């Protein structure tokens, strides 16, 4: 298995090439642009066998992918920030149509004003659209998760976003194991879902429905999404057997007896993991799956430990409500008899998360009762 020194964006592009994607349609936007550039280069060199469609916008990119998916093709797109927002209508449509599209979402703050730093609010603003959301913390995980995303999406017929932080992962070089195309093809196989349209057989898909029909479809998607965790674990086990790497929907790092737990997703989780040997009484829960949200698994992990304080690292903010991950976590903790105090460390705007920031926060010896918001800019 060759090892290459590449960026997270290059890892995403190579995963698409290895997966045997039949159509790529994407529009460049910082910090995602290098994915499109790499795929365009691979296509020009004859190493990307599928179609590469240059489109005029992000909306058109997802519309193009939806048509190809309806015809039974394995498809890919990528975007970030305002590009993701521009796709919003089609994002809902693709989930409702049950198209197994895989999209790379590279986190970047939404304007105004313009900001290029990696706020996760762009992807989290789409968390209720019916797409699976898997967050990555390294270039290796980006490559591996895109491969797994195709297996998952085509198994349960829901679209999937593979999400990672702009610049911290998208532009940082790391060593990445790149399996041969044949190995990946053996793992994935050809697209297994049936085409809804065929040449010469015109059809009208997804027309007007009644409220009752729509309610049934929403319920079916909801059930499928909740069952996706078990399917993801099964795919993860198969992936580990093939490539010797695994990624659980929730990963816990508890070095002995702990009093504090940091909950994080994306690049911030790797920062915490690197810090753990120097942090007393502290563990980490890394969230890979945000949709579906693994609330029961998190509660079980916390029930087994006598936790006094949870620090949630939120590189986002739902204005007027606070950090989004903290809100999700509080809902998951509700059934516990004595839930620990929750500190919501809000890094909205995409400010850098440093070990010193975490150490200063954990040094606060007066735990808040219930819930407290702490803004990262106040710890700089």
Characterise the protein shown here.
The relative contact order is 0.12. This protein has helices spanning 8-18, 33-44, 58-70, 81-86, 88-96, 121-124, 139-156, 181-188, 211-243, 267-275, 295-303, 324-333, 355-362; strands spanning 3-7, 23-26, 51-54, 75-79, 102-107, 132-135, 160-165, 173-177, 250-253, 260-264, 282-287, 289-291, 309-314, 341-346, 371-375. It has a 7-stranded mixed beta sheet with strand order 3-2-4-5-7-6-12, sandwiched between helices. Strands 9-11-10-13-14-15 form a 6-stranded mixed beta sheet, sandwiched between helices. It has a two-stranded antiparallel sheet with strand order 1-8. Helix 1 crosses helix 2 (33-44), helix 1 (8-18) packs parallel to helix 7 (139-156) and helix 7 (139-156) packs across helix 9 (211-243). The chain has 380 residues and is α/β, with parallel strands linked by helices. Helix 13 (355-362) links the parallel strand 14 (341-346) and strand 15 (371-375). It starts with a strand and ends in a 5-residue tail after the last strand. It contains 13 helices and 15 strands.
Q: If classified by CATH, what would the architecture of the largest domain be?
A: 3-Layer(aba) Sandwich
Class based on secondary structure composition and strand pairing? alpha/beta
Oligomer state of the chains in this structure: single chain
Number of helices: 13
* SSE sequence, one letter per element: EHEHEHEHHEHEHEEHHEEHEEHEHEHE
Low-confidence stretches: none
Proportion of residues in helical segments? 25-40%
Q: Might you state the CATH topology name of the largest domain?
A: Rossmann fold
DSSP strand content: 15-25%
Q: In angstroms, what separates the terminal alpha carbons?
A: 42 Å
Number of domains: 2
């Amino acid at each position: 298995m060759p090892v290459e020194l590449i960026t997270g964006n290059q890892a995403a592009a190579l995963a698409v090439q290895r997966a045997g994607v039949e159509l790529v349609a994407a529009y460049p936007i910082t910090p995602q642009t290098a994915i499109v550039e790499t795929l365009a280069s691979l296509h020009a060199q004859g190493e990307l066998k599928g179609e590469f469609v240059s489109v005029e916008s992000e909306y058109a990119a997802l519309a193009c992918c939806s048509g190809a998916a309806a015809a039974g093709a394995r498809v890919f797109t990528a975007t970030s920030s305002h590009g993701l927002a521009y796709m919003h209508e089609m994002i809902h449509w693709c989930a409702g149509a049950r198209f197994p599209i895989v999209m790379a979402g590279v986190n970047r703050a939404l304007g105004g004003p313009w900001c290029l730093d990696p706020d996760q609010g762009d992807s989290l603003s789409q968390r209720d659209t019916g797409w699976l959301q898997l967050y990555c913390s390294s270039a290796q995980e980006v490559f591996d998760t895109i491969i797994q995303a195709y297996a998952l999406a085509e198994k349960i017929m829901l679209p999937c976003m593979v999400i990672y932080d702009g610049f911290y992962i998208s532009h940082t070089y790391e060593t990445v194991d790149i399996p041969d195309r044949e190995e990946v093809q053996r793992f994935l196989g050809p697209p297994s879902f049936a085409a809804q349209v065929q040449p010469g057989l015109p059809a009208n898909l997804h027309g007007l429905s009644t409220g009752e029909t729509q309610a049934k479809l929403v319920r079916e998607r909801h059930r499928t999404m909740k069952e996706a965790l078990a399917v993801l674990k099964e795919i993860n086990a198969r992936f580990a057997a093939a490539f010797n790497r695994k990624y659980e929907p929730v990963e816990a790092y508890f070095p002995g007896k702990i009093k504090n737990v940091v909950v994080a997703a994306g690049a911030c989780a790797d920062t915490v993991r690197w810090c753990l040997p120097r942090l007393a009484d502290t563990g980490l829960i890394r969230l890979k799956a945000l949709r579906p949200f693994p609330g029961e698994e998190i509660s079980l992990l916390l029930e087994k430990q006598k936790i006094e304080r949870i620090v949630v690292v939120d590189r986002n903010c739902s204005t007027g409500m606070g950090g989004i991950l903290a809100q999700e976590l509080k809902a998951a903790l509700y059934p516990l008899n004595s839930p620990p105090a929750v500190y919501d460390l809000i890094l909205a705007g995409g400010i850098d998360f440093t070990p010193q920031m975490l150490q200063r926060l954990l040094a606060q010896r007066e735990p808040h009762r219930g819930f407290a918001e702490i803004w990262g800019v106040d710890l700089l």
